[in-house]
């Protein structure tokens, strides 16, 4: 068994650079937002929503949908509980269902440090990064 961590953190700046790099969402990377009722008020452009309340139930479908995507980035509002847990569940599900020849090409599983709260605070005015942002939800953040 490898001693490598199953996921690592990515900063908002690193994610912004990835999104703006010309790489294709859902092909070169995918952002998975695990917020549920707190999803309204804005989100990262081209994210997939997979609410944490149903994540374990739906993880096999997500693993299948993202199996060829080299980078999978998870987040919730602050990425303290739901985002990291989803990343761990996804990573362990992916490992348990991987074929031996796939072990060399394991996905890079990432968690957005600071979650959407920090990301939207820095990038809410950039339509390439954040969509559907609502001041009423986030205040003057």
UniProtKB/TrEMBL annotation:
One of its GO terms (cellular component) is nucleus. Gene3D superfamilies: Rhodanese-like domain (3.40.250.10). SMART domains: RHOD (SM00450). This is Rhodanese domain-containing protein. GO terms for molecular function: protein tyrosine phosphatase activity. Pfam families: Rhodanese. It comes from the Eukaryota. Residues 25-124 form the Rhodanese domain. It comes from Tulasnella calospora MUT 4182.
């Amino acid at each position: 068994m490898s001693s490598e961590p199953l996921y690592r953190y990515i900063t908002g700046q690193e994610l912004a650079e990835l999104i703006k790099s010309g790489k294709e969402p859902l092909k070169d990377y995918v952002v998975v937002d695990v917020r549920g009722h707190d999803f309204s008020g804005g989100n990262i452009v081209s994210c997939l929503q997979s609410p944490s309340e149903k994540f374990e139930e739906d993880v096999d479908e997500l693993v299948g949908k993202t199996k060829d995507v080299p980078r999978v980035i998870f987040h919730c509002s602050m990425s303290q509980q739901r985002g990291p847990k989803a990343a761990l569940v996804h990573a362990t599900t992916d490992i348990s269902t991987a074929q031996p020849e796939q072990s060399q090409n394991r996905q890079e599983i990432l968690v957005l440090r600071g979650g959407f709260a920090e990301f939207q605070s820095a990038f809410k005015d950039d339509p390439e990064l954040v969509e559907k942002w609502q001041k009423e939800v986030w205040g003057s953040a």
